[in-house]
Amino acid sequence: MPRKRSTAQYSFIKPQSTPHPSLGSAATSTATQSSSSSQNAAPLTPSVNELITSSRSTPVSVSTRSLLPTTPSSQTLPPQIRHLLSLPETSGPRARHRTGYAPGRGNNRVAGPAPPRSWLERSQYALSSLVNRPYQRLYPAGLDHLPGVPVEDGSASKSLQAMCLRTMAHHWNFIQEYEKNNLADLRTGLRILLLSIIAVHGPEEGVGFEGLKNLLLIPTEALDEVADYGERNEGLYRLDLSGSVGRSISLKQLIHLMEKPVQLTEEVMSELSWEESIALPLSPTIPHLTHLSLSHPPKSISWPALLTLAKHIPTVTHLSLAYWPVPSFTPNATTTVVSSKYTKDIQYGGTDYYSHTLDNNFREAANVLRKLAGRVPSLEYLDLSGCTSWLYALRWNGEDVGDHGIEWDSQWVRLNTLRIYSGVFIDEESKLGDVIDFVKCAKQVLATEAMLAWWTGKRDGVKLRKQWVYVEKDDISLYNGLWTGDGPEERAKRSGLDAVKAESDALGEVHWRVPSAYTHVEDVRAATGAAAWD
């Protein structure tokens, strides 16, 4: 009988056996040498399958095996047999430690891994060791940094209301988003107090423009009828935006809230329907604002924008500009010059790099303050704490006859309190440089106080200024017990404080240089040289 022929289609293909690495290395090297010599080409790159096969066939050494983690196998028995043999129960696996944290849920943990460290560095729920503040923002120490707080000692009170307000300030990012339709319904006293507590205990960027709008205005989608925001905020007289202006609230946004509505002409009003004419606001958002705090801004805050804002708040009587930079119309043009091939370089701005340190020229800063005094004429309280670097501008009267600073006999005539704390804190461990800065600031404060005392005195039987200005400053007597040693550095620190104390005790005997407009001297040089007290 003819033999059956088997086709390759149904034939059984035996898998290729892998030789031992010690046996296959020689054959592989021989085959590689023969192929390379025959084809005169570069060595072939092994494929992925060849690499996997080689790794599977490679034996694991004893040293490598000892580094692998070993899991101890504990023998387990059924419960009935374990009771018969009086064996202890096998301990269960140890619970895995979770580091996830859910804010507002106490000690409860959330499922999943812990959040990345970078997420927590700028979060309000982060630990104090993880908080990263690149610009080292200053915070107000308490609610008394601006007068007019509705509740006395509200920040330190242990009442339920104060605790709730502090909790709202700590979780302000959550509150302003999920309670935005209800914040404007709080009574006026609570809204005033909440703004100050947010400035002290709130987030780093401040209350935020959206949060401020939610406190002052009702969202448009929540309105069933036309609301007059001026009537709603009729009793809101105090606005504390410390630390918020320049960060989460721009001065341009604040101007938009403070400006009065545009009065339309009769022709435009005639074209509007009855419903559209009723919907127009009749008064500004805060019609009777008297207390305003813009303290603790960043260094990039704009003085021209503040002058624009001052036009819309003529009723302000208490203003805080603590820790503001040097007044300037062009703060970014300190080192900018205009070059010309015909003349020498001309300074672009009003202040160059050496105007304050070497030339003692505060012309631009005094001009800015004079314009501010003209736009906020009813000021009774002014806080310039931390601004001792440019306090000289308050008493600068010019180097020439045409220069003018603040006219204290006709501007800010109602001012009765000037707060000018140095903002420099010293103790027993302070360095000599910090003490020198404190002494310089204290001397500037004393000079300003002497200038105001001169203006309120009588000249030829006539008072140039009727209102006495009380100056709030650092108490030098608090540092009497510091640096009692005999070391050279301690003696230098002690002598600086003693000099400040001596000037403070003899403040009534210090004669401030009279402005040129009030000198009755025939010598023009003596008159024009009487700029300010050095």
Automatic annotation (TrEMBL):
It comes from the Eukaryota. Residues 1-116 are annotated as: Disordered. Residues 25-42, 53-80 have a biased composition (Low complexity). InterPro entries: LRR_dom_sf. This is Tafazzin. Residues 7-20 have a biased composition (Polar residues). Gene3D superfamilies: Ribonuclease Inhibitor. It comes from Venustampulla echinocandica. Transmembrane segments: none annotated.
